[in-house]
Amino acid sequence: MSNSADFRLTDARVILGKWCTEQTPLLCLAELLNFAVSLRGTISSVSEEQFVVAPSSGDCKLTFRLDDPELVFLYMERREAPDAVELDEASASRPLLAIALPARIPMRLPLPEVPPERETVKFIEV
To answer: How much of the chain, in percent, has pLDDT values that exceed 70?
Structure first.
């Protein structure tokens, strides 16, 4: 696995492109401030600016922009994820690409002394 500190957008595009070409089944998990998303599907396209996840069933799609310079990319095994729960060995060693979204500052005063934790979208091979 790649050292997450050295993992960049270029590396993320390589992983996304591989998953797209191989039609790798993925689980997309996102627990955001006001909602959570869970989606099984495959990556249907990857470009310099975005990638598209097509669900296993249905006519919807998830398009994710890649051109924000504040995105942070982490590539690891599932067991290395900060929120990992106990998993069987096969699940624990599956690759995971996490994309930390740009930090948001709450619109309430006073502002917190510690910046809020970044919301993250995770893509796990299944």
So the answer is: 77
- The residue among 79, 48, 78, 80 whose CA lies nearest residue 65 is 48
CA-CA distances (angstroms) from residue 126 to 29, 39, 118?
12, 12, 25
What structural domains does the chain harbor?
4-103+114-125 (3.40.1570.10)
Q: pLDDT of 56-96, one tens digit each?
A: 887 788 898 998 888 889 888 777 776 655 556 666 778 88
Cβ–Cβ under 8 Å, residues 97 and 11: no
Is the pLDDT at 18 greater than 70, yes or no? yes
Q: Residue 96 is encoded by which pair of tokens?
A: 């995971």
CA distance 39 to 22: 18
